[in-house]
């Protein structure tokens, strides 16, 4: 499994400012959490979702590919870090 956190710099209040992904080795998302500027969280997995959050239909780009954009800052995180934000999103 791969766990990723991506900060996204933009001016839209309707888009998340960060997202967290749990992915298979083929980089397909299994679970995702989105963090919005107002502090709200959305989540998605294969069975459920909240808000506008959905799983991607294509493999997630690599950290290098994401970080090549001046609007993205990506880094790998631990499963524990992902599970913490997942739990928060599910109980919000």
Quote the beta fraction.
25-35%
Mean pLDDT figure = 92
> How many alpha or pi helices?
2
**What is the H-and-E element order?**
EEEEHEH
As for the number of domains, it is: 1
Q: How many angstroms does the end-to-end distance come to?
A: 25 Å
Helix/strand structural class? alpha+beta
Poorly predicted segments: none
Shape estimate: globular
Instruction: Compute the number of strand runs.
Output: 5
Record the strand order, biggest sheet: 4-3-2-1-5
The helix fraction, in percent, is 10-25%
Major beta sheet summary: 5 strands, antiparallel
Could you explain the architecture of this structure?
It is a single chain. By secondary structure, this protein is an alpha+beta fold. The protein has one domain (2-91). The protein has helices spanning 63-67, 79-91, and strands spanning 2-8, 18-23, 29-35, 41-44, 72-76. It is globular. It starts with a strand and ends with a helix. The relative contact order is 0.26.
Write a brief caption for the model:
With 92 residues, this protein is of the alpha+beta class. Helices cover 20% and strands 32% of the residues. Strand 3 and strand 4 (41-44) form a beta hairpin.
Could you give the topology of this structure?
Elements: E1 2-8, E2 18-23, E3 29-35, E4 41-44, H1 63-67, E5 72-76, H2 79-91
Antiparallel strand pairs: 1-2, 1-5, 2-3, 3-4
Key terms for this structure?
92 residues, 5-stranded antiparallel β-sheet, 2 helices, alpha+beta, 20% helix
């Amino acid at each position: 499994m791969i766990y990723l956190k991506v900060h996204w710099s933009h001016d839209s209040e309707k888009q998340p400012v960060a997202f967290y992904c749990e992915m298979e080795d083929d980089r397909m998302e299994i679970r995702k959490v989105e963090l919005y500027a107002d502090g709200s969280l959305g989540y998605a997995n294969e069975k459920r979702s909240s808000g506008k959050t959905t799983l991607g239909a294509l493999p997630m780009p690599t950290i290098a590919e994401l970080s090549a954009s001046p609007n993205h800052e990506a880094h790998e995180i631990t499963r524990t870090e992902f599970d913490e934000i997942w739990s928060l999103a599910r109980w919000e």
